[in-house]
């Protein structure tokens, strides 16, 4: 299947985990890929090799999305590399655990600047490209089940994802006249490097699994498949939505 033949996707935070899975899934279906992270290392090299083996083009552009100027430059550089940009997947994100009364301004700013402000201005740069060249586009934001449900000790993270939910709904209306679609994907408990502590704690892991009707952690491929659907023409009438990829967790949740 070549749903994305000749198309180009920029996937932020794509050195590992969900971002890397999204890159591989889109490339498998014919998409050329622009990878992103803070720095280019062996993870990026391996992904580029895998994508090229599929017959697609791939490059890596380093950028810190918590810095607005770097976010805007990333989009401009992405367009310069391949001459076009069709799909933007805002996957880069951070979380910081702390009791609310101990959250530092530094950690708050890092979370909000990366998860919300960085996404805001990356989308803005993409929209300006689409408008200037009069082309359609698709934006997929990596949100979280915590745009909907509570997550004690992660107040800033929840605030950033709640803000992302409203931003997506607002932009769905504002960008529709330009044929730009925008949606959120909200993973639940997924086996990724960011969840390694949980995966190593059998007692805590079992408590989490008791809250998931499907009784398993999600795989990065589970998330990537939904991203691929939303990026494709099969989702041409879908905008302003959040797709939960959580095994049923969101509406079957009790804090342990």
Number of helices: 8
Could you state the order of secondary-structure elements as H and E?
EHEHEHEHEHEHHHE
Report the sheet-strand fraction: 5-15%
Main beta sheet: 7 strands, parallel
- Which strand order does the major sheet show? 3-2-1-4-5-6-7
The CATH H-level homologous superfamily: NAD(P)-binding Rossmann-like Domain
CATH topology: Rossmann fold
> What is the percent of helical residues?
40-55%
Q: What overall form do the CA principal axes indicate?
A: globular
Supply the CATH architecture: 3-Layer(aba) Sandwich
Q: Into how many domains do the coordinates divide?
A: 1
- List unreliable stretches of 5+ residues: none
Tally of strands: 7
Averaging pLDDT over every residue, what do you get?
94
Structural category: alpha/beta
Radius of gyration: 18 Å
Query: What is the CATH class name?
Result: Alpha Beta
C-alpha end-to-end distance: 43 Å
Structure description:
The chain has helices at residues 17-28, 42-53, 68-82, 105-133, 155-175, 196-200, 202-210, 220-231, and strands at residues 8-11, 32-37, 58-62, 87-90, 137-142, 180-187, 242-245. The model has no long low-confidence stretch (mean pLDDT 94). The protein has a 7-stranded parallel beta sheet, with helices on both faces. The termini are far apart. The protein is 45% helix and 14% strand. Helix 3 runs parallel beside helix 4. Helix 4 (105-133) links the parallel strand 4 and strand 5. It has 8 helices and 7 strands. The protein is globular. With 256 residues, the chain is an alpha/beta fold. The protein has one domain (8-244): 3-Layer(aba) Sandwich (Rossmann fold), CATH 3.40.50. GO terms for molecular function: glucose 1-dehydrogenase [NAD(P)+] activity. Belongs to the short-chain dehydrogenases/reductases (SDR) family.
